[in-house]
Amino acid sequence: MRTHQTFSALAFAATLLALPVGSIVTAQPRDVRPSSEDETVLKNTAQGLLLDAALAELARARAKQPEVITFAAQVTADSAMGIGSLRALGGKYVITLPTDLTATQQEIVARLANSYDVEFDHAFVDEMIRTRRGDLAAIGAATQSASNREVRDCATKIAASIEAQLSAIQGLTSNNLSEVKPPSSL
Predict the structure, then answer these.
(1) Per-residue pLDDT for the chain (186 aa), expressed as one digit of tens each?
(2) Helix (H, G, I), strand (E, B) or coil at 158
(3) Residue 32, SS3?
(4) C-beta separation of 71 from 169 below 8 A
(5) How far apart are CA 78 and CA 82, in angstroms?
(6) How far apart (Å, rounded) are the C-alpha atoms in residues 46 and 99?
């Protein structure tokens, strides 16, 4: 019996030695289940994207300037893609993500819904700049501490999209919206 085990071990070793260098595949480490911090990143990022989508849909209906409408359409598409990626991760790891706006987010949408025409465009741009900056700060800190590679990669992609949006919306502020002043509130 012992001779058989020794022979089997030698045969296995000989087989490995006969393989060309580099052909031995090492096992890749599996992603660990997301930590509670990773779950918080997923949930908070999804919550932020829900607000972005709601504001963008409102802007697509209310905005007057074509550049704002175009930007809102891009935010809608980016948010849908980000939420889809987050939901896929949430499903994989059985993490329930939010599907509704928080009370504070509902207040933000309601406040903007009370604005019209160019005043709406300015209020929307201001709110998107504020939320883009806040989201970037939160996601940036989260990606540094994420223990799960998939969570980190997903958050990094969403952060890149948000950075592009911030750059675009700041361009709107300086180039297009400054030409038309909102009506003064007296």
Answers:
(1) 555 544 444 444 444 444 444 444 333 345 578 898 899 989 999 999 999 999 999 999 999 999 999 999 999 999 999 999 999 999 999 999 999 999 999 999 999 999 988 899 999 999 999 999 998 988 888 778 788 999 999 999 999 999 999 999 988 775 556 454 444 443
(2) helix
(3) coil
(4) yes
(5) 6
(6) 8
Q: List all residues 6 or more positions away from 93 whose beta carbon is below 8 Å from its beta carbon.
A: 33, 34, 39
**Which are the contacts of 52, defined by CB distance < 8 A and separation ≥ 6?**
75, 78, 79, 128, 131, 135
Pull the structure tokens for residue 43: 């949930």
Question: In the numeric block, which tokens belong to residue 58?
Answer: 């409102």
Query: How far apart, in whole angstroms, are the C-alpha atoms of residue 59 and residue 68?
Result: 7
Judge contact between 69 and 42, C-beta under 8 A.
no
Residue 24 has phi, psi (to 5 degrees) of: -80, 120
Residue 99 structure tokens: 């599907």
Please report the beta strands in 65-174, taking only residues with DSSP state E, as ranges in sequence order: none
- Of the candidates 153, 164, 140, 129, the one whose C-alpha atom is nearest the C-alpha of residue 52 is 129
Phi, psi of 22 (to 5 degrees): 90, -5
**37: which 2 tokens?**
């911090």
| Residue 48 · residue 131 · CB < 8 Å | yes
pLDDT of residue 16: 40
pTM here? 0.76
